[in-house]
Design a protein that fits this description.
By secondary structure, the protein is of the alpha+beta class. The chain is built from ten helices and 18 strands. A hairpin with a 3-residue loop joins strand 2 and strand 3.
Length: about 350
């Protein structure tokens, strides 16, 4: 109810009669619907959720506070019928979710449209106590799975085998879906921030970056750990790891409500630059996590986001050396009245296996 009330206030400011929500993540946020097809229309007084026949019974169980309709034919025509029925003279739409083709179909139905930017995302960015609790449980599932993976991390295994095993363990912990494909990157491939697992055999002296997440109630977690296999280059690996670890601590300690996200990014980035590895850290320091694994706020040098209490995001600096390997340490935090509460609890001490 509160979400609809907040959205209606936004409608008044925009001077429109309703809003069409088509992004399935935003639909879920508003309605609780977990299927893959549906949209919602919110007006000043009414709220309707529309899906197809496949989800008729599911919608009855999941969607509360909305009139439920089952679409029978052309979606653009049905939206036109709804705008007529609810006397919507001008309807807002999510400008970064509606395709150009479907936009044109709506125009041909004589529907007056107004683009809206980040209307739902600006609501989702602040997490409720229930959402934070779900994220914490998603973190716990992910951490439990990783602890169970430890006996399988050994020379002679492959990246793909470890990734598949971790996915299996995550599902055993109750994760219905995974936020993204598990990343296991070893040796020189660990210098690729978003490497896909390969058939490469884990060798002595390798750095191994693990990046994975869990799920609970549709909400996600995201974390990374880097370990080393006993062997060559341990001194250099430990040095790089220490720099990344200290950079992350500085970023976490910088978190405050009402600061720019760029301040947090700079805390990590400046420290890495001071240690002569600035060019080896090319991605943002973090990103929001919730119903999507990448959402606002974005913690980078380009971000325009302002940090507020109850935002949840990652802090994940890294150093990536082509031909040698990479280190990334990623934790999740929730912004509190006094700083940041770290939600992840896996040890971060440099570990040699």
């Amino acid at each position: 109810m509160q979400k609809k009330a907040l959205l209606r206030k936004k409608l008044q400011k925009q001077k429109i009669d309703g809003i069409l929500i088509t992004d399935i993540v935003n639909v879920k946020y508003l309605t609780g619907f977990t299927g893959s097809s549906g949209y919602a229309i919110i007006t000043k007084k009414d709220a309707v959720f529309v899906t197809d026949f496949r989800y008729q019974e599911q919608a009855k169980h999941e969607v509360k506070g909305f009139r439920i309709r089952i679409e029978r034919g052309d979606r653009a025509k049905e939206i036109k019928d709804l705008t007529d029925e609810y006397e919507i003279r001008r309807i807002g739409f999510e400008d970064h979710h509606l395709t150009f083709g479907f936009y044109n179909k709506l125009l041909k139905k004589k529907i007056k449209l107004r683009p809206l930017n980040n209307t739902l995302e600006s609501m989702r960015i602040i997490k409720s106590p229930v959402e934070i609790d779900f994220i914490k449980k998603a973190v716990k599932r992910a951490e439990t799975a990783f602890r169970k993976l430890h006996p399988f991390i050994r020379a002679g295994s492959t990246e793909r085998k470890l990734a598949l095993k971790l996915e299996e363990l995550l599902k055993e912990e109750g994760c219905k879906t995974l936020p993204f494909g598990v990343i296991v990157a070893s040796g020189s491939l660990s210098a690729l921030p978003h490497a896909s697992p390969t058939s490469r055999v884990i060798k002595e002296g390798d750095l191994i970056v693990f990046d994975w997440g869990g799920e609970y109630g549709g909400y996600y977690s995201d974390m990374s750990r880097t370990v080393a296999m006993k062997g060559r280059n341990t001194v250099k690996q430990r040095t790089i790891y220490s720099i990344v670890s200290d950079a992350q601590k500085k970023a976490i300690n910088s978190v405050r409500s009402n600061i720019k996200a760029t301040v947090i990014d700079a805390a990590a980035r400046n420290y890495i630059e001071q240690n002569d590895y600035g060019e080896k850290f090319g991605h943002g320091t973090g990103h929001g996590v919730g119903l999507a694994v990448h959402e606002k706020p974005y913690i980078s040098w380009r971000s325009k986001d302002i940090i507020k209490e109850n935002m949840v995001f990652t802090i994940e600096p890294g150093i990536y050396l082509p031909g040698f390997g990479g280190v990334r340490i990623e934790d999740m935090v929730v912004v509190t009245k006094t700083g940041a509460e770290v939600l992840t609890s896996l040890p971060k001490k440099f570990k040699v296996i």
